[in-house]
Design a protein that fits this description.
This protein is mostly beta strands. 3% of the residues lie in helices and 63% in strands. The chain has 1 helix and 10 strands. A hairpin with a 2-residue loop joins strand 8 and strand 9.
Length: 141
């Protein structure tokens, strides 16, 4: 069953060019970056691994897995800065993956706009309600 559950990630598989936009927010100054990333299925398709590197020197690895006990998707994130986080994930529909980062108030979505374009948005609760965008990454191939 885990391999079948991982088929939901097929829209992310492959190599991507990344364009980062970080708007000025309560968490950071404005900035931009570029990079490359690749999603692959590994270990008999039980895991989807995301490797990326940015022009500014950032590198990271993310690992998605299906947790059979809780029937939730899990995600682990590791950066060359020494930062690491985990998240619980859920598909809102066939084209949208939502992520709730543990030990933080961050939420993130991957949304497929076309076979060759995915938008990642990371948001943080805003004063007065709703969420403020703190990072957007456009994935293209």
């Amino acid at each position: 069953m885990p391999a079948r559950m991982m088929n939901r990630f097929n829209f992310l598989l492959g190599e991507w060019n990344l364009a980062y936009t970080i708007p000025e927010s309560s968490l950071s100054s404005a900035g931009t970056d570029t990079g490359v990333g690749k999603f692959t299925k590994e270990m008999n398709s039980r895991y989807v691994v995301f490797d990326y590197a940015t022009a500014s020197g950032g590198e990271a690895k993310g690992i998605f897995a299906w947790d059979e006990k809780t029937e939730l998707y899990r995600y682990w994130w590791f950066e060359n800065s020494g930062n690491f986080l985990s998240a619980t994930c859920e598909f809102l529909d066939d084209d949208t993956l939502a992520m709730n980062w543990h030990d933080s108030l961050l939420v993130q979505t991957f949304t497929k706009e076309s076979p060759d374009k995915v938008i990642l948005k990371m948001q943080y609760p805003a004063v007065g309600g709703g969420y403020e965008l703190i990072m957007e990454v456009v994935f293209t191939r």
